[in-house]
Amino acid sequence: MKVACVGGGPAGLYLSILLKLQDPSHDITVHERNPEGSTYGWGVTYWRGLLDRLEAHDPESARALADHSVRWSDGVAHVRGLTTRHSGDEGFGIGRHRLLEILAARARSLGVRLEFEHEIDAADPPAADLVVASDGVHSALRGRHADDFGTDLKTGRNRYIWLGTSKVFEAFTFAFVETDHGWIWCYGYGFGPDRSTCVIECAPDTWTGLGLDRASEADGLAVLEKLFADVLDGHPLMGRSAAGPAGPQWLNFRTLTNRTWHRDNLVLLGDAAHTTHYSIGAGTTLALEDALALAAALRAHTDLPQALARYEHERKTALLPVQSAARYSAQWYENLPRYIGLPPEHMFALLGQRHSPLLPYVPPQLYYRVDKAAGQLEALRRLKRWLGPKVARTVHARRIK
After folding, report:
1. Contacts of 14 (CB under 8 A, 6+ apart)
2. Residues 304, 290: Cα–Cα separation, whole Å
3. Spatial distance between the Cα atoms of 328 and 135, rounded to a whole number of angstroms
4. What is the C-alpha to C-alpha distance for residues 202 and 179, in angstroms, rounded to an integer?
5. What are the DSSP calls for 303-370, one per residue?
């Protein structure tokens, strides 16, 4: 089979690896419009479950990924000068540049052609049996057929910016800072021996009140460094990746969905098909899981339409709880004043429960007490598991009316 992957991100590269491992005779080319090594961004996160799945399908790239990742198992929250710590699942951080470097090297070793600085004209896609749109949220291939795919974009309310820092966070770190214009907060996690990612978010009124809407890059970073001086321990914030061509931008997160993920021999993969709010740290995991599912469907079905239909059904089904969790997580932060007055330990406990469809409808302190009791009483755990999906379905039905 001749395959053209348009977009050299994790999804397209890993799909090319999997397909070559399944059948070395596949003719696979990955087309990337940017120069090699010029990726944007800082570090990405993933969790132990993904690493185990990657190990089962390609131990070589999984080992390289693990060897170049940093690990943590604790979460730390700082609020009003107080700190609370919780232990959790094992998490990993790796630089986006290093991740792509590992996947590109593995793909090349298997005979995949990588064509950098090669922008594909959406009106004239490559001649191939299968064309994979793995070119991200701004996918030109998807955009050309947006009506057929049923593309929908919903813009979040809060503003956020993706930064780096030389402060190495030894745990996944949250810091909430109160200003005269409202709360501003950061998520920090390490991804290398001397670097961490620092995502900063705030409500629109806080963003404009602090003057971040009109500040230059240098002035904006100075404001943020002062606000988060305690958690940064005096380390600077970095506005651009060493390989990135442009400075940072404040953005509103855009949740992308598509009614269908394939059209003729064109299929959507990763962020071209869907996005989930960054606060659940699932973007890279979902992209790689898409690649795993598409490769499995193509192995199971020689009929392309049947394979693409299976891939779409499997991934849409798997994404439903993740998309729900992401939606509620984003809403939790958009409604931060509802929770920020709680004792820090209570607030951090509800931060961990922010994916729950019940939480927005139950007074926070009551939810905390019930959740704590549910940890000790099986009957309450069962009630919570039963009630949560019912509330989620009811809310979803009201939204689509």
Report:
1. 61, 103, 287, 288, 291, 292
2. 16
3. 27
4. 11
5. SHHHHHHHHHHHHHHHHHHHHHHHHHHHHHHHTGGGTTTS-HHHHHHHHHTTT-SSGGGS-HHHHHHH
Enclosing H/E stretch for 61 = helix 59-67
**Residue given tokens 């059948």 in the structure block:** 23
User: If you count them, how many residues does the chain have?
Assistant: 401
How far lies 196's CA from each of 42, 93, 116, 191, in Å? Answer: 8, 9, 27, 5
Token pair 């604790």 is at which residue?
74
With a CB cutoff of 8 Å and minimum separation 6, the contacts of 310 are 297, 300, 301
- DSSP at 279: G
| Cα angle 362-364-366, degrees, rounded to a multiple of 5 | 70
Torsion angles phi and psi, residue 198, rounded to 5: -140, 105
Taking only the tens of pLDDT, the chain with its 401 residues reads: 999 999 999 999 999 999 999 999 999 999 999 999 887 779 999 999 999 999 999 999 999 999 999 999 999 999 988 888 888 889 999 999 999 999 999 999 999 999 999 899 999 999 999 999 999 999 999 999 999 999 999 999 999 999 999 999 999 999 999 999 999 999 999 999 999 999 999 999 999 999 999 999 999 999 999 999 999 999 999 986 444 445 568 999 999 999 999 999 999 999 999 999 999 999 999 999 999 999 999 999 999 999 999 999 999 999 999 999 999 999 999 999 999 999 888 998 899 889 888 899 899 999 998 888 776 545 544 544 545 555 554 544 444 34
Using DSSP, state whether 33 is helix, strand or coil.
coil
Backbone angles phi, psi at 14, to 5 degrees: -70, -35
Tell me the three-class secondary structure of 145-204, residue by residue.
CHHHHCEEEEEEEEEEEEEEECCCCCCEEEEEEEECCEEEEEEEEEEECCEEEEEEEECH
Tokens at residue 331, please?
Answer: 């809403």
Residues near 341 by beta carbon (within 8 Å), at least 6 away in sequence: none
Question: Cα torsion for 215, 217, 220, 226, to the nearest 10°?
Answer: -150
